[in-house]
Write a structure and sequence with these properties.
There is one protein chain. The protein is an all-alpha fold and 254 residues long. The chain has seven helices and two strands. α6 runs antiparallel to α7.
Length: 254
């Protein structure tokens, strides 16, 4: 089997599995964070779980860039910087800002995330820096698809960072309780952090205009939309005063 055949198998499999994951997560929420529960085997500290599973993406795409034989253009460098902006923060900054120091994450969840992130970063990186050939020239920076995708990515990145910071500010260092967040998009949806991340990767899909990018965007939605719904239900069940008109993920819609 040659590498391009393997590449296509991973890509097609990802599309197929994403549909099943989307449906399954409405019935069985991933057991970490506020959805944490017993019965999922051994656990790791939250910060270590995040570090291990997210750093795979940062490292793998960087390796794909270094070994890739597509021309090194400003466009390809910007793609690398976009990806690393998200994953360096998620791997090497976010885990060490967590204030729920006693919370843990199942090793099973970490392992599954590592496998996905490895395959996802390989598919995106190998396409961008090898299989795309000479597609991403300097002229791609003026393409409306790149401009729109970059703007969506930046908007999603800002929303995601702001939402995470807002949640963290609600909790005292070492605290484990939850409070109702308010302000900004939190007045309209329960999970603007997930909304922002979904925007990021759909922006990435548009900017790269690739099946690899689209696969990742679909996976992000398939993973985070059901989790946003679970969080929304959790808030309603645990806070009687939770705003009745607040939606789960899409302002004014759902």
């Amino acid at each position: 089997m040659d590498e391009f055949t393997l590449f296509r198998i991973i890509l097609i499999s990802s599309f197929t599995v994403a549909v099943g994951i989307f449906i399954a997560l409405f019935f069985v929420s991933a057991p970490y964070g506020r959805q944490s529960r017993r019965g999922w085997g051994p656990h790791l500290p939250n910060w270590l779980g995040w570090f291990l599973m997210e750093s795979v993406s940062a490292v793998t795409l960087a390796v794909m860039f270094l070994i890739g034989d597509a021309p090194r253009t400003l466009t390809s460098i910007l793609f690398l910087l976009m990806w690393e902006a998200h994953y360096i923060h998620r791997s090497y900054i976010y885990p060490f800002l967590l204030r729920d120091g006693k919370k843990k994450m199942p090793v099973l969840v970490v392992g599954m995330a590592v496998i996905f992130n490895l395959g996802n970063a390989y598919v995106n990186g190998r396409y961008l820096f090898h299989f795309s050939g000479t597609r991403y020239t300097l002229g791609w920076l003026l393409d409306p698809r790149f401009i729109l995708g970059l703007l969506l990515f930046i908007l999603g990145f800002v929303i995601n960072r702001w939402a995470d910071n807002s949640l963290r500010a609600l909790r005292e260092p070492g605290g484990t309780g939850y409070k109702i967040p308010h302000g900004g998009l939190y007045e309209y949806i329960s999970c603007p952090n997930y909304f922002g991340e979904i925007l990021e990767w759909f922006g990435w899909a548009i900017a790269t205009w690739s099946l690899a990018g689209l696969t990742f965007a679909i996976w992000t939605f398939a993973n985070l939309a059901p989790r946003a719904w679970s969080h929304h239900k959790w808030y309603r069940e645990n806070f009687r005063e939770y705003p009745a008109d607040r939606k789960a993920l899409l302002p004014g819609v759902w």
